[in-house]
Write a structure and sequence with these properties.
Rossmann fold, single chain, 13 strands, 257 residues
């Protein structure tokens, strides 16, 4: 008895060209991914996420739960968010939805594999208010060595790195793109926090963005707090943690510096 083969694309044809086109003809600059898509929850409900691109909590709704709730409550429609250390784009997607069509998101990410997933997530969700900057943010504009971590989310600038990447100071970026001056800064850069802040002194003074800062190590955490306090920021931790014990800083700028 002959075996009848199953043609997946023929099966999809009755459901319409848009669905078939999305699967059969992905973005020309990004290859298909083998694990399929999941749908996100919460404020990102219905948005697509590539399974295997990052922490499963992203699409299960548990990823950085307290930080995400704070981010959702603070970021307002029409604002400009800079996602420094965008990884594969979870907060870039969330920010894009929160600020809406009138707002803008700038996603800074240097690691090539992360950039591919980041762009794919933007493409899959038809988000057009996000600008991707393929550079590492630091205290100087130029080039530096980047070291891959044990997973895609833990890469960082290091003299022992294996990949040379372009770097940018936030002060330089805002000088070149004044229309994109940030209302909110989300920073997660695996130990390079002080370099990011040092390269943003004028930006912090001129535009006073609200800051969501992940810190890595007690000494870096203390020095970041001192840096922001010296510039008039009011700092707090997430949830019930004490600021000194937290690895997340929420910073509000002074209203009248």
């Amino acid at each position: 008895m002959p075996v009848k083969t199953f043609d997946f694309y023929e099966f999809l044809r009755p459901f319409g060209k848009p669905l078939l086109g999305e699967i059969a003809a992905p973005s020309p600059e990004i290859a298909p991914f083998p694990y399929g898509h999941a749908h996100l929850a919460g404020r990102l409900k219905g948005r697509k996420w590539i399974v295997g691109s990052s922490n499963h909590g992203c699409y299960l709704g548990s990823y950085e739960y307290e930080k995400r709730l704070l981010f959702e409550s603070v970021v307002k429609e029409g604002g400009v968010v800079w996602d420094v250390g965008a990884h594969v784009g979870f907060y870039s997607l969330l920010a894009s939805i929160l600020v809406g069509p009138a707002g803008r998101v700038v996603a800074f990410e240097p690691w090539p594999e992360n950039i591919v997933y980041l762009k794919k997530h933007l493409y899959l969700n038809r988000l057009e208010n996000v600008t991707v900057v393929e550079k590492a943010v630091s205290d100087c504009t130029g080039e530096a060595w980047f070291q891959e971590g044990s997973c895609r989310s833990t890469g960082h600038l290091s003299p022992q790195g294996t990949l040379k990447v372009k770097t940018i100071r936030l002060d330089d970026f805002v000088q070149e793109n004044p229309a994109l001056a940030p209302d909110y800064l989300k920073i997660d850069v695996e130990g390079a926090e002080l370099a990011v802040l040092a390269g943003a002194e004028k930006l912090l003074a001129d535009f006073r963005p609200t800051i969501f800062l992940a810190t890595h190590g007690r000494e870096i955490h203390r020095r970041c707090c001192d840096f922001l306090w010296a510039r008039g920021y009011t700092l707090s931790a997430l949830g019930s943690q004490n600021l000194e014990d937290s690895d997340e800083i929420f910073g509000l700028a002074p209203e009248n510096p």
